[in-house]
Automatic annotation (TrEMBL):
This is Efflux RND transporter periplasmic adaptor subunit. Residues 95-125 form a coiled coil. It comes from Methylomarinum roseum. NCBIfam families: RND_mfp (TIGR01730). It comes from the Bacteria. Belongs to the membrane fusion protein (MFP) (TC 8.A.1) family. One of its GO terms (cellular component) is efflux pump complex. Gene3D superfamilies: 2.40.30.170, 2.40.420.20, 2.40.50.100, Helix hairpin bin. Residues 57-199 form the CzcB-like barrel-sandwich hybrid domain. The keyword Coiled coil applies. It holds the Pfam family Beta-barrel_RND_2. Residues 205-277 form the CusB-like beta-barrel domain. GO terms for molecular function: efflux transmembrane transporter activity. The keyword Transmembrane does not apply.
Length: 362
């Protein structure tokens, strides 16, 4: 309520105008305030944490043979499909070994065929008692030996074929070459890394969650991912993996959120904001008021101004409250004489007094 300065009061007194109608009109008009309803809604605790985009798969592609590099078919940044040839190694000596094993196998097969023919002849002769039984048994043993030789040489041929195949290094999955570690003419040994391949379609967001929130997380936890560089590409998903081993220094728990970026322009290394809606009771309705409705008292307690109707007038009533979780611009009220549907003052509440008449403005 506005007070008249003494100067104007004296003038009104001198000219004989009555004061009571003017003062009454000012009081009835009330202090202009803006209000918002108290609402009971289902909300969870929203944690906003920094995260980083990584990849679900990254491979240090290694050589499986000792050989010299004769061709590198990719560069850093090249996109490759699964099965594409990346590097060729010198395979000339292995080809010679393979050809020799193939020839030996053909020779052994011919020997096996001849042994079987002789066994057939001996089988007929022994029936007519033209040869001793031991001669037939010797022919039978020769067939078994020849068959074993064929089997051994088949395995040897397969071994050389596999060695030959290993001189061609192929992409184990589709992705982007992030590092090229060898050049033509370089000698590589078994286990040497030659390329780094990153899967740039199946990405993962890694975020560290404080230990006090760990028990509230599950693979059903809703997540909103907002890239710092591309805030318009907001992505809603769920937690994929929770690693139940905290960092020994920070005591934060790693959480992984797998995403598919085929329709997004995201890449490993980008930073994001991760909003997690945590807690098993996130669907439980709670009382919420706008944050602007709270008034901090000198004793650090919180209160709000409720709008109450008294004798056809709207009056402000101060109510002490206890706040809970904060959800963006809304605050949970866990205790206080406040109910769903009440109206609280969110503008003009700094100058109100108990019982003061107010008027609501848009």
């Amino acid at each position: 309520m506005h007070l008249f300065p003494r100067f104007y009061l004296k003038i009104l007194f001198l000219i004989g105008l009555p004061l009571s109608p003017l003062l009454s009109s000012a009081a009835e008009q009330g202090v202009p305030v803006r209000v918002a309803p108290v609402e009971r809604m289902s909300r969870g605790q929203q944690l906003s944490l920094p995260g980083e985009i990584t990849t679900q798969r990254i491979s240090q592609i290694s050589s499986r043979v000792d050989a010299m590099v004769v061709e590198v078919k990719v560069e850093e940044g090249s996109y490759v499909e699964q099965g594409d040839v990346l590097i060729r190694l010198d395979d000339q000596l292995t080809r010679f070994d393979l050809e020799r094993s193939i020839a030996a196998l053909e020779e052994a097969r011919a020997q096996l065929q001849e042994s079987k023919r002789q066994r057939g002849e001996f089988s007929r002769l022994i029936g007519d008692k033209f040869i001793a039984k031991t001669s037939y048994e010797a022919a039978q043993s020769k067939v078994r030996i020849s068959a074993a030789v064929v089997k051994r040489l088949q395995a040897e041929r397969q071994r050389f074929q596999e060695l030959l195949n290993r001189h061609v290094i192929k992409a184990p999955f589709s992705g982007v070459i992030s590092e090229k570690l060898v050049e033509v003419g370089q000698w590589v040994k078994v286990g040497n890394s030659v390329l780094t391949l990153v899967d740039n379609h199946h990405l993962r967001v890694e975020v560290d969650v404080p230990q006090r929130y760990f028990s509230r997380l599950s693979t059903d936890t809703d997540v909103v991912i907002v890239p710092d560089a591309l805030p318009a590409q907001k992505l809603t998903t769920k937690v994929s993996h929770i690693i139940p081993v905290a960092n020994a220094t920070s005591h934060y728990f790693p959480v992984h959120i797998d995403i598919d970026s085929e329709s997004l322009t995201l890449a490993p290394g980008m930073t994001v904001r991760v909003k997690l809606l945590s807690g098993p009771d996130r669907q439980k309705p709670v009382l919420l008021v706008p944050r602007d409705a709270l008034i901090k008292q000198p004793d650090q307690s919180d209160s709000v101004w409720l709008i109450k109707k008294q004798q056809d007038q709207l009056q402000a009533q101060a109510v002490e409250v206890t706040v809970g979780q904060v959800f963006d611009n809304l605050v949970e009220i866990v205790a206080g004489q406040i109910a769903d549907g009440d109206r609280v003052v969110i503008r003009g509440n700094e100058i109100l007094k108990p019982g003061q008449v107010v008027r609501i403005i848009p």
